[in-house]
Amino acid sequence: MANATRTAVQQRGQRTLLSTLSAVGDARLHHLRVASFVFVGYYLGARLGLALTFVPNPVSVLWPPNSVVFAALLLLPVQSWWVVAAAALPAHLLAEMQGGVPIAMVLCWFVSNMSEALIGATCLRLLRPQPVTFGALRDVSAFMVAAFVAAFLSSFIDAAFVAVNAFGDSSYWVVWRTRLLSNVTAALTVVPVIVTWHASRRSELVNMGRAGAFEAGVLIAGLLAVTLVVFNSNLTASVAPALIYLPLPFLLWATLRFGPRGASGAFALVAMLVIWGTGHGLGPLGTRLPAENAFSVQLFLIFVGPTLLCLAAALEERRRAEQSRRASDRLFHLLLQATNDAVYERDLTTDAVRFSGHGLAPFGYAPALLPQTFGMFTELIHPDDRERVLTAHLGAVEGRGGHWDSEFRLRRGDARYTHVHEQGLVVRDKAGRAPSQMIGTLTDITERRETEELNQRLAQASRFAAMGELTASIAHEINQPMSAILSNVDAAEMLLDAGQQDSAELRQILEDIRSDDLRASEVIRHIRGLANKREVAFVRFDMNELARAVLRLVAPTARRRGVMVTSRFAQVPSVYGDRIHVQQVLLNLLFNGMDAVADMIPERRRLEIATVQAEAGDVEVRIRDWGDGIPPGQCERIFDSFYTTKEHGMGLGLSITRTLVEANGGRICAENHPDAGAVFRFTLRIDGRPAGTNARR
Amino acid sequence: MTTTGPVVHVVDDDASARGALTRMLRIAGFEVRGYASAIEFLDGHTGASGCLVLDVRLPGMSGVELQTVLGKGDESLPIVFLTGRGDIETSVHAMKSGAVDFLTKPVKRDVLFAAVRAAIARDADARAHRAELRSLRSRFATLTTRERQVFDRVIHGKLNKQIADELGTSIRTVKAHRASVMTKMAAGSLAELVGVGNRLGSA
Q1: What are the phi and psi torsion angles at A436 (to 5°)?
Q2: Which residues of B fall within a CB distance of 8 Å from A519?
Q3: Which of A472, A488, A519 has the CB atom closest to B85's CB atom?
Q4: pTM over 0.90
Q5: Residue B20 and residue A519: Cβ atoms within 8 Å?
Q6: Per-residue DSSP letters for A523-564?
Q7: Does residue A266 surpass a pLDDT of 80?
Q8: B136 in a structural domain
Q9: Three-class SS of residue A236?
Q10: Which of B81, B99, B127 is the last residue in one of the domains?
């Protein structure tokens, strides 16, 4: 056992060490992965941004590198942000140096690009401390605020750098405005795609199933076809500007069916195609000057993107709520099935009653027979119980607590009555505290009731049996002298009838009659003595001395039965009581103890008797055994007449013991010892109070 | 112990009840003996005629157990049971085992006397029956082997000729044996002889 535990601990220790090592390794690997992602993403983003520039207009319509960094910062803890910056710099240099831009300008742009991502990520972290998934409306709105603030602020820096480096010939505000729109468009398009798709697992894509994959394929194909036709061809350029809405059904399809991931993915795809097409003077947005075209594309994307994201988030929220409602519904139904209880709701305005789950099936009612109104339900309550139940309901509605709890008889589907326990709660509306609904549960307690009744009957029967036993024994005791008297009277009468004047015989007969009569009245006197317990001879005596005498009496039996009896006597004052009674009590308890340890191993075949000064000034005698103890919950019952756990016991010993102790003004109780066995404790008075004053239980 | 008349044996552990009962029966003219227990009765009684007045509840061997013990012997005495508390089970058992009556204490004088008289009468009948049987047996013991063979066939209704054939002897010899059997068994007629045979056979 100990070895096994140690091994387990060692294994656990090794595992912890291993996992720590692998975590370190994981962290390095992770950083490397992040760095390469950022590098590739940033570089490709920059190339894409340059590709999407509307020649001869020098400014890109959509500048993705900043958004790639923005997304990476969102997905990483703050302490790993340096990795992103470190990976982005070479990518930035690599991409920008190809265009023959002065190195100072290139570095300035790096700073302004980073500043946008940093402002955006920090702002979003402050607005939404928990990870952003685009699965909630709050995520989307916080992201929109952060993206706008970041682009807004960083564009000042960007425009300032351009002015300082005297790069290009656009004015400060033109640069600022172009950068703002370009960066906002990029953030709204790129960040959600990266964040939502980052969270996806291979298993989710596999679990999508064949139908899901097919649907996604059709969707992508349709989206591509429509977008290409509308925005990347000459066919539609002059036909109708309204055609720009043609991809919308596909975008909505993606949103409805594939959530935030579908919405962001589809939107990014459309955005790229629209920008590319328009940049080439194609489609309905490519009909004007490049700068104007860029502006309208950006506005188009800025309005469509967030709308889709909001819609996806709202749907996602609803789906989750539905899922959790369904889970709790399912739990509720399982619970109902498990308990076999019936649950109903009563609408207090219409008085309609609606049963949940299996309805009243546990009580034998088919769904079609369920009561529809509370009035119909009360018809099922036993007429004798109805008023009581309704009073309980009314009390709950009018009272403060709003709970009720009652037991009544309910008519089952087969017209039999069954005992039910009803517990309920009054539901109040939020505003007026007015009760609107009552919810009750019905539990079938017939079985429990029957068990209780059976127990009661058994207890009564055993009391009757005890009385019968006693009566029979009294009857016998009295019957004997009575029948002797009758025979003697008959004999005397016969003597007289025969005319014999044998006075000696007659005298003897009379003598016998007298003694039988006295005997009968002695029996009666004894019974009366038993009944009112006034026949005890109270004396003052030394409890320890009496206990020693009893131990001497018991010693031979204890030896024969292999029971060791030890004693612990304290200095106690002399007590007041009937010596014979107390002796009987000690004998009963010692024999009881010997029976209790009879089947134990030799070490536990042991009794201990002790005397102590009790707190009330009385003397307490304790008799402890090392047996199996008293069955749980039976400590009080063991003193009842005819209660026994012994095969051949009558169940009277402890009952008599208690009667005797109480007749001497004491109390007796029994409890299990925390270590083993049972302890019987009884008290004796040290004052001379009459015993009759003790309260009988 | 030389009394020849019927004796009423009263077995009751309660001294005063026993004393009163014996006294009453004695005054009524019965010969009475009292015993405090079943064992005391078994040790003390002489086999004289009479009956037993027996308390059901006795220390040691109970009244019903004593009845069982007595029932196994030849010379059983008829029993009148007395009990303080009559329970149906015991009374049915006692009556089935041949008790004359089962009376509840305190018992009415006339009821007790009637039961005791009936018991004594039953004992007298039984004794007469037993005495007759004894005399028949002793007569039967005087028959020769051949006479017993003839006797057995006669009471089973065989004719002299059949008997002669079976025993391989003459009809005349059979007739002689038959006459001898009639004389020895003190039977006046064939019918009487058959009756004797039945009594012997059932005993």
Answers
A1: -115, -25
A2: 16
A3: A472
A4: no
A5: no
A6: HHHHHHHHHH------EEE-HHHHHHHHHHHHHHHHHHTT-E
A7: yes
A8: no
A9: coil
A10: B127
